[in-house]
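Researcher: Please translate sequence to C-alpha cells.
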Amino acid sequence: MTPLERLYAEQWPTGTFGHAQPAPKPPARPIRPWSPEEQAEHVAQLAAALDETESRGTGQPECHLHAVDAA
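Model: Translation complete:
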C-alpha cells in the first residue's frame, strides 16, 4: 500500500470532538411574495427615509469648476 493509499484509507477529520453533530436547522418558514401594491408602498417608504437622511438632489454632480475667458 502506497503512502497515498494509506492516506485515503484514513477517515477524514470532521472538525468536531467526539463526533458531535451540529444543531438541526429550524424549519424554514414559507415566504409569501409581495403584491405590487406592497412593493410600491415599501419603495415609497424607503425613498422617504432616504430623503430624510441624505440630500439626493437631481442625481447630477455639482460642478465646482467654471470656464473663464483668458485675459
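Researcher: Any highlights?
Model: The mean pLDDT is 79.
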